[in-house]
Known about the structure:
Belongs to the TMEM86 family. The chain crosses the membrane at residues 12-27, 33-50, 57-73, 79-100, 112-130, 136-154, 161-180, 192-213. This is F0F1-type ATP synthase assembly protein I. This protein is 81% helix and 0% strand. The chain has one domain. By secondary structure, the chain is mainly α. It has helices at residues 2-26, 33-54, 57-76, 81-101, 109-130, 136-154, 160-181, 187-191, 194-216. The protein has 9 helices and no strands. It is globular.
Amino acid sequence: MPHRALIKQRPWLLASLVAGVSYFFVADDPIGGAWLMLWKGAGVGFLALYAAFRTRGFDGLLIAGALTLGALGDVTLEISFLIGGALFALGHAVAIILYLRNRRASTSSSQILTGGSLLLLTPLIAGLIAYPMPNWIVATAYSAVVGGMAAAAWTSRFPRYRVGLGAVMFVVSDLLIFAREAAALPDFATAWTIWPLYFGGQFLIATGVVQTLRMDRRPDKT
């Protein structure tokens, strides 16, 4: 059974890795067009398929939905920064619902402190970076949602060093995007870090949540 399960899940994860890693090397193609937009969304899109096929129940729908909205956001960002950001915000809201439904039974003071820091510092840092750009308030409000997602992920029952770490990587990736738009960091620094942090974070979140939900379904689970 474990070998058959691995064979069933490997194609989606392999396709995601191939799409996500390869996109990093073609992202700056000046003649990309629509095919490059679809390539960009394929990495997380395959993760959404992985979640959809490997989970059951409402929590499975939530993680698949959050990843689907992320993939749509990846594509739409190439057309409209605001619409793409709105799709990501919706995805974060869905993820927050998932994490709050799966809160850790006992949370240590250090976990609460880390969660609170993510919740408060993410929008604060984003606002300081984005100000006085025209949409700095929108960036700050969006970052409050991202910080809420990361805080909820860190204090959920899902593995912190996969799902929690993935959410923190997502936060850092978004802050680097704002730093790039505000010209607060050189292009070479953001070019080499934004996509790996983002895609790596989504990959950790997807695999961590899916494997935990699947463990819940094991008949021998005590």
